[in-house]
């Protein structure tokens, strides 16, 4: 099996350069009778098997052959879910190096996402990563570079741009994009994301100040859990689930839900290849360790389009999308007369690859990949930078750096605690 998996991975790498025309290669092309072609059998290893990570076991079309966690209780729960007998790892680097693993799933806290994605890319593995894609803009740029160099397939685990009804809109994003593309709303557009348009910013993901030091539980390797993050004395609230409330690991409700909510907006506004040029923030001064709440964050693009994050749900009558010619409200209600009949006359949005296994087999990019995923994650990280500094920021979308603001640019490339680096 190890020999078959190694041959399979060699085929995938070579197909990027010399066999892109073949989507599924017959068995007889690759070898003798009984050889497993890439289309027949794909395996995965899951790094981080807490509640979120165990949700990765159920995705169809692959077999989980390896799991990794620095908490032994997570590993035990994962083995139970999988029926036992699965290869366990404490160090993610050993899982990534395993010849039995085709696809690496990363379901750790965000401060590990960039580093692990890059290591998986170097090892020639395809990558399925939880949102947010990376904790900083700089890490996202490094992930893009690594994947470009090594030819991996990458999927970010937020799916609303291509699947399911989109929260309070109660329709798939494809229908919203179709409306935007018709021009019936006009241009530029303003998108408001708030409780009143169907989106919850989950402000219960806030940190606690002045946490007392607690005893590290025997089942947790806290030093490895921290990894590249600055050392802070252990307190249960800093880890598992509630880690979202601390800047070192995530960014509160915006870090948790921002890419879910804003990636589809980026898509239907046609902004997959650019970022806003300004971000304005209205929020209390943030604690240097514990993430707090905010009232309003406004992103503005060069053409005047805006995304408004209304944290205090101030505008009860806000349209989800407002343009000079019309408005679209929660539940796909609109002030445009006879909207459904008019919309039916227009073509559907361009098709996308929405099955990651198809991407792995054909070497064609997934609908939400490292390129457009980095841009929507940049929205999140721009907002978090403005929050931490409590001021408006200007951004160079092409060069991906803040303009005339050294403190903001230091948040793009944040140092990692040794021995970790990217």
From TrEMBL:
One function term, GO molecular function aspect: oxidoreductase activity
All copies of the Gfo/Idh/MocA-like oxidoreductase bacterial type C-terminal domain together span 169-422
Residues in Gfo/Idh/MocA-like oxidoreductase N-terminal domain copies = 45-156
Keywords from the named record: Oxidoreductase
- Keyword Oxidoreductase in the entry? The reply is yes
Source organism, top-level taxon: Bacteria
Q: Which SUPFAM superfamilies does the UniProt record give?
A: Glyceraldehyde-3-phosphate dehydrogenase-like, C-terminal domain, NAD(P)-binding Rossmann-fold domains
Query: What is the protein's name according to its record?
Result: Oxidoreductase
């Amino acid at each position: 099996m190890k020999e078959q998996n190694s041959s399979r991975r060699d085929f995938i790498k070579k197909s990027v350069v010399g066999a892109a025309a073949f989507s599924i290669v017959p068995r007889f092309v690759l070898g003798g009778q009984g050889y497993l072609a890439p289309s027949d059998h794909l395996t995965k290893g899951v790094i981080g098997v807490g509640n979120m990570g165990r949700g990765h076991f159920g995705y169809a079309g692959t077999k989980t052959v390896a799991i990794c966690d620095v908490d032994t209780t997570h590993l035990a729960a994962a083995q139970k879910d999988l029926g036992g007998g699965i290869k366990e790892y404490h160090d993610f680097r050993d899982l990534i190096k395993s010849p039995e693993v085709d696809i690496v799933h990363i379901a750790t806290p965000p401060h590990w996402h960039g580093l692990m994605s890059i290591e998986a890319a170097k090892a020639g593995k395809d990558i399925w990563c939880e949102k947010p894609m990376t904790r900083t803009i700089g890490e996202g740029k490094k992930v893009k570079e690594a994947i470009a160099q090594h030819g991996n397939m990458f999927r970010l685990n937020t799916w609303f741009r291509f699947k399911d009804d989109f929260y309070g809109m109660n329709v798939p994003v494809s229908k919203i994009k179709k409306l935007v593309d018709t021009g019936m709303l006009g241009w530029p557009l303003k998108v408001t994301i708030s409780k009143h348009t169907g989106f919850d910013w989950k402000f219960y993901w806030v940190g606690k100040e002045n946490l007392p030091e607690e005893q590290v539980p025997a089942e947790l390797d806290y030093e490895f859990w921290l990894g590249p993050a600055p050392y802070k004395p252990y307190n249960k609230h800093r880890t598992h689930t509630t880690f979202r409330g601390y800047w070192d690991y995530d960014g509160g409700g915006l870090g948790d839900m921002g890419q879910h909510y804003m990636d589809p907006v980026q898509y239907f506004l046609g902004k997959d290849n650019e970022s806003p040029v300004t971000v304005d923030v209205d929020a209390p001064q943030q604690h240097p360790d514990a993430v707090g709440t905010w009232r309003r964050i406004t992103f503005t693009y060069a053409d005047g389009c805006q995304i408004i994050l209304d944290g205090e749900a101030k505008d009860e009558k806000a349209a989800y999308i407002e343009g000079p010619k019309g408005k679209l409200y929660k539940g796909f209600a609109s002030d445009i007369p006879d909207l459904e009949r008019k919309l039916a006359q227009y073509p559907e949005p361009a098709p996308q690859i929405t099955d990651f296994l198809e991407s792995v087999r054909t070497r064609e990019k997934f609908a939400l990949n490292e390129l457009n995923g980095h841009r929507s994650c940049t929205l999140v990280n721009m907002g978090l930078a403005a929050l931490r500094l409590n001021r408006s920021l200007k951004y160079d979308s092409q060069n991906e750096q803040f303009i005339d603001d050294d403190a903001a640019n230091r948040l793009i490339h944040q140092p990692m605690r040794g021995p970790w680096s990217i």
